[in-house]
């Protein structure tokens, strides 16, 4: 095995395991900052070692299918008895009991991985992800990234609970405590009746027609989809037993994905179904539009889709909205396409969070947009590796420093960690190195993620995005070493406000982490 150099060990081994005095929080934070800087001086590996156990709080921008690593897709395909097209590098169902020409059973591929089979296995992983990918003429990182989803599709939905476990277990190993997974429940019936009825620009009437045709019947399918997934996740992790895995401590909720690259009647129907499902199912905490923002329909119908959200928000005002907006770069679309997406997502789409937001500085009145985002406390979900791989945007080309300077709340997230072959710790290391961020600044971003999650209830903090004073119901925690509430007021507040309770847990973990240094 390889050993860490002595200097690195000195930088990373905790100085003590003692409990600190409640009045020494600033001193402990300063000591942790110095330990962080020592790790930074040692390089990326030391920085990762330091940040691995750092309490990251939440990952709020995670596509479930994109978070699964290629190796697990292949394993699941073998369990499902699927074939692999050795030329197209896609899964296929067998014809009868055998695979067609130019196909082989995935079980055979895994049973004999030497020689040619190892080559096919490697090519599958590369086709399912960004591994080994280098852009070339007529095939960009954008093309490679979005093509992966077509390659690994076809496995049985019964594996969804396994995917949840994979993502949650990885999160637990990095001291994450909460994840919102973007997932698309069944919506075939909604799409069918939408096409049968046809587009109606009168959205209130169109909504009534869809509901009268039984659109909300698929809410039960969404319930079954997530409940079966969570049940399997709990079984795998032995939650509720003496053998419970650490992953059981990670909270998970779902964001209802809407596929925006389809005809407008289908997009509205699926969005309506999403609002109905979120209103009735506690496992779903918000809605989001997905698929490439630069696609023809995504661009052509963008304003119309924001108007759909504007109307549905008026009917379902309690449904949280996070939107992919500004996942664009110069040259990917005409300059006109860069001028308004983020602003419309906030002003028309009522987005409380923006995913990516890469083209912010290309929007009309960019300084005014940044001021508006800061004033409204709209958080930006920052996905550094994804933005680099898909758009070629990195380092000083990324608007992250401008968001921070304008006091727009930002938090790091993974987007599609399986496709990108990363994890959230990787994104923290990248942010620290690319933007010379301090420990205190990373801590601010981690707290911001927990501040802007969609869990029900009030915040632990007295003021939005101000992490200096607790809510008046729990001011006693300000000077309490272990953040253990004692008053009935604080206990009731935490019991009735799930978001505040999760934030209190993050603060407990932060104090525990900083006490080590």
What does this structure look like?
The structure is a single chain. The chain is α/β, with parallel strands linked by helices and 517 residues long. Helices cover 49% and strands 13% of the residues. The protein contains 24 helices and 13 strands. The protein has an 8-stranded parallel sheet.
Features:
single chain; 517 residues; alpha/beta; TIM Barrel; 8-stranded parallel β-sheet; 3-stranded antiparallel β-sheet; 49% helix; globular; disordered N terminus
Average of per-residue pLDDT values: 94
Sheet having the most strands: 8 strands, parallel
Number of domains: 3
Number of strands: 13
State the share of residues found in helices, binned by percent: 40-55%
* Principal-axes shape call: globular
Number of helices: 24
Q: Tell me the CATH topology of the largest domain.
A: TIM Barrel
- The low-pLDDT segments are 1-11, 13-22
User: What is the CATH class of the largest domain?
Assistant: Alpha Beta
What layout of secondary structure does this protein have?
Elements: H1 6-12, H2 25-42, H3 44-52, E1 57-63, H4 64-67, H5 70-79, E2 83-85, E3 90-92, E4 103-105, H6 106-111, H7 116-127, H8 141-151, H9 160-172, E5 176-183, H10 188-197, H11 203-212, H12 219-237, E6 251-259, H13 264-280, E7 284-290, H14 296-300, H15 302-315, E8 320-325, H16 341-347, E9 353-356, H17 366-375, E10 379-382, H18 384-391, H19 400-405, E11 410-412, H20 417-420, H21 424-435, H22 439-451, E12 461-463, E13 466-470, H23 488-496, H24 498-515
Parallel strand pairs: 1-5, 5-6, 6-7, 7-8, 8-9, 9-10, 10-11
Antiparallel strand pairs: 2-3, 2-4, 12-13
Helix pairs in contact: 1-2, 2-3, 3-21, 9-12, 10-13, 12-13, 13-15, 23-24
